[in-house]
Specification:
Keywords: Aminopeptidase, Hydrolase, Metal-binding, Protease. Pfam families: Peptidase_M42. InterPro entries: Peptidase_M42 (IPR008007), Peptidase_M42_aminopept (IPR051464), Peptidase_M42_dom2 (IPR023367). GO terms for molecular function: aminopeptidase activity; metal ion binding. This protein is of the alpha+beta class. It folds into 2 domains: about 240 residues, Aminopeptidase (3-Layer(aba) Sandwich), CATH 3.40.630; about 90 residues, Beta Barrel (Elongation Factor Tu (Ef-tu), domain 3). Helices cover about 25% and strands about 30% of the residues. The chain contains 8 helices and 17 strands. Strands 1, 2, 3, 10, 11, 12, 13, 14, 15, 16 and 17 form an 11-stranded mixed β-sheet that branches. A 6-stranded antiparallel β-barrel has the order 4-5-8-7-6-9. Strand 6 and strand 7 form a beta hairpin. Helix 5 crosses helix 8.
Length: about 350
């Protein structure tokens, strides 16, 4: 039987099911603005599409909390003579999981349903069956004749995976848990923040999946004193992996990032995150991610040296349509971020 989360699951579901690939986060941005506006003093969108919502504090010290809005997807590159679509990836798909998936093609005249087909195995020879799939081999079938497809679809149209969000046991699973669960966490923390001692910028960023581009620009524009990024992280606690390969485990709490391939978080920041978690009895674990980067790095390479930290939500099956996060880890992450922001006075010295 599925659990009943202590947070607003309907909003998380709405965020996860809303479509928004890198550079085209419009629909998600609309939801974020709608949800944040009542809880902040100012909200704006920059030239790249980052949403910056500001809660003014009693000091000039400022903290940025960043979570990216974009999800991995595709852009149409060509319509062939038979009406099948060729695409270019926007973000890092594992091509092994793409066959036999439903998709939505977003065109100027509206959304179209489609499928990424897969030939029946008994029609393939041994070489074809053993061939390693490649993303560039993806073709999308809209179930329409070629002339109709030509009229309705153009190069540059966008494609997202078509998958709903569900509670499966104690897990929330869906196609864009990465990183809408962190956007949800950001919104929940903003709702809980009252009269902060420091100014807090809650930033929903763009184009993370194609190179942390929104965060890089935001780091220059805001020039914060401290930056905290939110993202999902690998949980390989499933059959086929040794325990040392897990990175994180579902149900063990919020993951305090120590490093990934793009950043080494500031020791004084992750130590204080740990202190807050221990003082408040918030379940937590540590994340050492051998590959993959997050918005955290965007604030460590822009506008000079900045202390940075990150909180991650352990997630199984990342970059697939069944990404899964534990409800208790989501609750722990919301609690840790809220407690950390509530205790920030601007007087902590994070310099080394």
């Amino acid at each position: 039987m599925a659990v009943e989360p202590d947070f607003e699951y309907d909003l998380l579901k709405r965020l996860s099911e809303t479509c928004g690939v890198p550079g085209y986060e419009d629909r998600v941005r609309e939801v974020v603005r709608e949800e944040l506006t009542p809880h902040v003093d100012e909200i704006r969108t920059d030239a790249m599409g980052n949403v910056i919502s500001t809660l003014e504090g009693d000091s000039d010290y400022s903290v940025v909390v960043a979570a990216h809005m974009d999800e991995i997807g595709f852009m149409v590159t060509h319509v062939d003579d038979d009406g099948f679509l060729a695409v270019d990836p926007l973000g890092g798909f594992d091509p092994r999981v793409l066959k036999a998936q439903r998709v939505t093609v977003h065109t100027q005249s509206g959304d179209l349903s489609g499928v990424i087909g897969s030939p029946p195995p008994h029609t393939l020879d041994e070489e074809e069956r053993e061939r390693t799939p490649k993303t560039e081999d993806v073709r999308i079938d809209l179930g329409l004749d070629a002339e109709d497809v030509e009229e309705r679809v153009s190069p540059g149209d966008l494609v997202t995976m078509d998958q709903g969000t569900e509670i499966v046991g104690e897990h929330v699973t869906g196609k864009a848990i990465d990183n809408r669960v962190s956007v949800f966490t950001l919104i929940e923390a903003a709702r809980r923040s009252e009269s902060p001692a420091v100014t807090v910028h809650f930033a929903a960023t763009v184009q993370e999946e194609v190179g942390l581009r929104g965060a890089h620009a935001l780091g220059v524009d805001l020039d914060p004193d401290l930056a905290i990024a939110l993202d999902t992280t690998v949980a390989n606690d499933v059959p086929g992996f040794e325990k040392r390969e897990y990175v994180t485990e579902l149900g063990e709490g919020a993951a305090i990032k120590l490093k990934d391939s793009s950043v080494i978080t500031s020791p004084k920041v992750h130590r204080r995150l740990t202190e807050v978690a221990e003082e408040r009895g918030i379940s937590h674990q540590f994340e050492v991610l051998p590959a993959g980067g997050t918005d955290t790095a965007g604030f460590q390479t822009s506008a000079g040296a900045k202390p940075v930290g990150a909180i991650s939500i352990p997630t199984r099956y990342l970059h697939t349509v069944t990404e899964s996060a534990h409800v208790e880890d989501i609750e722990a992450t919301i609690g840790l971020l809220s407690a950390f922001l509530g205790s920030e006075t601007g007087e902590f010295d994070y310099r080394l």
